[in-house]
Amino acid sequence: MLAVLLGLVFTAVELLPGDAASASSERGDSAADLRARRHLLGLDRPVWERFWDWMTALPTGDLGTSARGRKVTDLLSDPFPNTLVLGATAFVLTVLASLALGCWAASRPGGLADRLIGHVSTAAFAVPEFVVAVGLLLALSLWTGWLPAVTLTGADGAPADWTMLIMPVLALVIPQTGWNTRIVRGALADQARTPHVEAAHLDGLPVHRIILRHALPGAVPAIATGIATSTGMLLGGAVVVETLFNYPGIGSVLAAAVAGRDTPLIAGVVVCAGAAISLVLLAADLVRARTLGVRP
């Protein structure tokens, strides 16, 4: 899947107007200068040949050289860990909030809390991350001054203060919590119709014990799969959120790479994000297989 995705990236960049040579050219460069730069960057070679060379170097950890002459691994060594911190924090908070809200709603089926959580979670998921980010900027920064509007970086390239993570994390957590709360609630509703859960109700066990001890373990496979699929949306939303909050992640790197038609740098960002998403999906498959007692 990752190889196919990278092939699409190379093809898509090739179809964009212009190329890295023209995007990085200086004013006054002649046509001969552009041809020489295209030859230097290898842009006069077929795209499939450049893709093959890049893919064969990938297993050694070589992500190629950007159009500006710097190693892609060097360009991503600082921003990608920052994006991982942002995405991992948002992921953990999303899981905790979704489980808490989903279990709360399932403990009162058809009640006020169940209906309210259902409506709010649907509305939260329907709102894009950039809209949530703008709302947070207005409410928590411009109107109240509680949090800084932009992220300042320290000497190590990371955010200078942990409070600068709050709004970017919330902008990612709110929509994905809405999505995953619906998944948790639906999985628990399916488990509520199973014989062992119905028997637990007939035995008069407390509702919270039925949810945690009887329904939730059986719902884990569906919940794990649903939450894992939101990883891609978290990292995809992070690109937009990082730009809005001036967060030092891969969002600004990717935007600059697309503007500069820098194929190796774009592919480097995609392979790092794709590898992280693939690992989370693999972990979800292993959890599902272990829970169901199936050999992975």
Overview in brief:
Belongs to the binding-protein-dependent transport system permease family. The protein is mainly α and 296 residues long.
Structural summary, described in words:
With 296 residues, the chain is mostly helical. The protein has two domains: 2-60, no CATH class; 79-259, MetI-like fold, CATH 1.10.3720.10. It is built from 13 helices and no strands. Helix 8 (129-142) crosses helix 9, helix 10 crosses helix 11 (207-245) and helix 11 packs antiparallel against helix 13 (263-292). It is elongated. The two termini are 19 Å apart. The relative contact order is 0.15.
- Principal-axes shape call: elongated
What is the distance, rounded to the nearest whole angstrom, between the alpha carbons of the first and last residues? 19 Å
Low-confidence stretches: none
Q: Please identify which CATH superfamily of the largest domain we are dealing with.
A: MetI-like
Spell out the helices and strands N to C: HHHHHHHHHHHHH
Our estimate of the beta-strand percent is under 5%
Largest sheet: none
What brief labels describe this structure?
296 residues, elongated, mainly alpha, MetI-like fold, 0% strand
Write the layout of secondary structure elements.
Layout: H1 2-15, H2 20-23, H3 31-41, H4 47-57, H5 72-76, H6 79-106, H7 112-126, H8 129-142, H9 166-192, H10 195-202, H11 207-245, H12 250-259, H13 263-292
Helix pairs in contact: 1-4, 1-13, 6-7, 6-9, 6-11, 7-9, 8-9, 8-11, 9-11, 10-11, 11-12, 11-13, 12-13
Pfam family, one: BPD_transp_1
Membrane topology: Multi-pass membrane protein
Family: Belongs to the binding-protein-dependent transport system permease family.
